[in-house]
Amino acid sequence: MRESGKQWVTEEKEEATEEDGGESRRVYWPTAEMKEKAYFSDERIYEEASRDPEGFWAEQGRALIDWFEVWEGRKEGKEGKEGEKVEEGKVVELNPPYFKWFVGGKTNLSYNCLDRHLEERRNEAAILWVPEPENEPQRVLTYLDLYREVNKFANVLKGLGVKKGSPVTVWMPMIPETAVVALACQRIGALHSIVYTAFAPHAVRERMEDAGSKILVTADGFYRRGKKIELKNRIDEGAVLEKVGAECCVVVRRLNREGREGKGEDSGEGEDSGEGEGEGEGEGEGEVAMKEGRDYFYDELMKNTPFSYCDPETLTSDDISFLLYTSGTTGKPKAVMHSCGAYSVGVALTMKLVFDLHPTDLFWTTADIGWITGHSYALYGPLLAGATTLWYEGAPDYPNPSRWWKIIEENAVTVFYTAPTAVRALRAAGEKWVAGRDFSSLRLLASVGEPIDPDTWRWFFEKIGERRCPLVDTYWQTETGGILLSSLPGVGPFVPGVAGPALPGVRFDVLDATGEPVKVGESGYLVVKPPYAPSMLRGIYKNPAKYLGEYWSEYGAEIYFAGDGGVKIGREIGGQPLIKITGRIDDVMEVAGHRLGTAEVEEAVSSLEEVAEVAVVGKPNAIKGEVPALFVVLKDKKEKAEMDRKIVKAVREKVGPVATPEVAYYVSDLPKTESGKIIRRFLKGLVRNEALGDMTTAQNPECLKELAKATEYRGPQKIPGYKV
Ligand code: WTA
């Protein structure tokens, strides 16, 4: 490639020694070449956008998305002469905590990802799919291929009775059909609800029940770490479809395609998969049982549907385009609702701002489609940008820890987006897996999901980015739909361990407990202020109270409370402070970059009859960031190994392998307030070796001695009766 191996970043001249928590760090900036290439390279964009956020978004909304009808009040066809303001209608309508963007605009996400690109890019690759088995060929779907498949499957869904607004639950792996299913839902205005495949069938059931979904689209299975992980058979074993009264189930044959017989491997083993849960019962190799009149094979439905155009449903900018379940501070996961046009504008803008994605780029997000990063940046974002998105089916370390690096090299990936946990794990596997690989195609690296520590940042930047590529740390959430905070590749700076400034057009801040913005160096809570960002959630499906309670009550209904902590580090760009994200301040864990609620794990464990009480906290882990640690009070004394096994099994069955606990401490009591509430702050302090704080707030502080012993506490606090 012409651009191969170019130097896209430069180190700050005067060796910067930015003091932040005692750490000195080097700072990087884009080179002239990067500035020239980038869509955005002038830092004045920050000031322009904050002077007039509505005008900024209106301009982006017009430029990035095709609208069937422009938003209300805008005088169609009226172009502003130079210096003359174009008359705009309602770009945003605020009614906190509710808000609308591009009010009354009409569009469709599938149309914007596919149809509008056909004229210029019909034969360009939309998806490049890399299967896990190395002897299986990669697949390319051009924009035309994808368009045709999506139209067909949209008609299939209609034929199955799926309507605008119907929830469609999807439990599918990283295979191209998953993209087809999602885009087909968009086309007809149905709401996909995609569930991560490392969650358990039980989790699928709960999400179908909560949404009232009557249709499941799944696969026979997929490959992970050389094993076959079954899906449909496990749904059947759990009688999920019967229990939720599903009317229809569509099954993609991934393992057992025509002409490809499954070989006698076991299924479902391995760390991240459904160990012991994957084996099909009584069915032949890779076979699945199909119930007449309810279950259909995807390939058969498609074969019997000749290509015919399916009119994209006209949706308003704020109509709901999909649901995605995520963990909150309490109770079961809840379905975040995302909008159609406004979400599209937000995501499409970040493709340019943060990833500087050009149509010729090959973009690889390693996130699974079951998470928001998979939605916004493996699927919709790159297609909105008309680029090529790479989807990889399997594990990063299969058949060895060089697999990802090999994929980058062989396919000439240009922009690579992953999570710190994966980088740490691949680094720990040894330098030899990276050595000798050619990363010259890369232009940009990006990180998401948890804070990236400076040490991991540097390794990623040096070994994979070859000290040539900017590394942007992107902060956002399922709820925000798209990135809210990151340095821009064409503007900089890139500071190891610091996410960066809020994106242009986003009013972001860090507040103290009283609601005042924090001073430099002080930590506080991350918030978004009006007019918010177009890509942000539109509510919680069927649960408005939860929407208010989780996000709009800490500082009142006008301020979005993210649940994360942050620090302004004392540097600015374009008048915006650079912010270091310190992590969740609530009971949400980030396990290997995956968001999990302590409440879900607790519920699974307390379902065991031996368990009297349980509390789960995130324990720091060198690779995964955090892992679930359990404090368990048993009704009667039990053998530890046996209890450990039971607990692991319960969590894997109820939540999924992704939530497998790392350690259980069996103790006789948990610290509680006078009103009987478990004081998690103490438990967190114990597993993190941090100060616990005022112990007199507990009615039973004497139990801390036993807990400190169990966790081998080495923190600063003196705990009566306990010695290190
Ligand atoms: C965390 C993932 C630090 C944060 C997109 C947030 C981060 C949660 C970063 C959302 C980052 C995400 N630095 N922490 N760059 N990105 N987080 O909903 O705690 O799966 O609230 O969305 O991940 O996780 P979610």
Kindly describe this structure.
There is one protein chain. With 724 residues, the chain is α/β, with parallel strands linked by helices. The chain has 21 helices and 32 strands. The radius of gyration is 25 Å and the shape is globular. Bound molecules: 5'-O-[(S)-ethoxy(hydroxy)phosphoryl]adenosine.
In short:
By secondary structure, this protein is an alpha/beta fold. Helix 6 (143-159) packs across helix 7 and helix 15 (420-428) packs across helix 16 (454-464).
Throw out a few tags for this protein.
22% strand; seven-stranded mixed β-sheet; alpha/beta; eight-stranded mixed β-sheet; 32 strands; binds 5'-O-[(S)-ethoxy(hydroxy)phosphoryl]adenosine; 27% helix; 724 residues; globular
- The overall strand count is 32
Portion in beta strands:
15-25%
Structural class: alpha/beta
- What does the radius of gyration come to? 25 Å
Hetero ligands: 5'-O-[(S)-ethoxy(hydroxy)phosphoryl]adenosine
Cα shape: globular
How would you characterize the largest beta sheet? 8 strands, mixed
> How many H/I helical runs?
21
Q: Which strand order spans the largest sheet, edge to edge or round the barrel?
A: 14-13-10-8-9-16-17-25
Mean pLDDT: 91
Low-confidence stretches: 83-87, 259-283
Q: What is the rounded distance between the termini? A: 59 Å
Oligomer: single chain
What is the helical fraction, as a range of percent? 25-40%
Write the topology of this structure:
Elements: E1 9-11, E2 28-30, H1 32-37, H2 44-51, H3 53-64, E3 92-95, E4 98-101, E5 106-107, H4 109-113, H5 118-121, E6 125-130, E7 139-142, H6 143-159, E8 167-171, H7 176-188, E9 191-194, H8 201-211, E10 215-219, E11 221-224, E12 227-230, H9 232-237, H10 240-244, E13 248-252, E14 295-297, H11 298-303, E15 315-316, E16 320-326, E17 334-339, H12 341-353, E18 362-365, H13 372-384, E19 388-392, H14 403-411, E20 415-418, H15 420-428, E21 444-447, H16 454-464, E22 471-473, E23 508-511, E24 523-528, E25 539-540, H17 544-551, E26 560-573, E27 576-584, E28 588-591, E29 594-597, H18 598-606, E30 611-621, E31 625-634, H19 640-654, E32 663-666, H20 680-688, H21 703-711
Helix pairs in contact: 2-3, 3-12, 6-7, 12-13, 15-16, 18-19, 20-21
Bound molecules: 5'-O-[(S)-ethoxy(hydroxy)phosphoryl]adenosine (WTA).
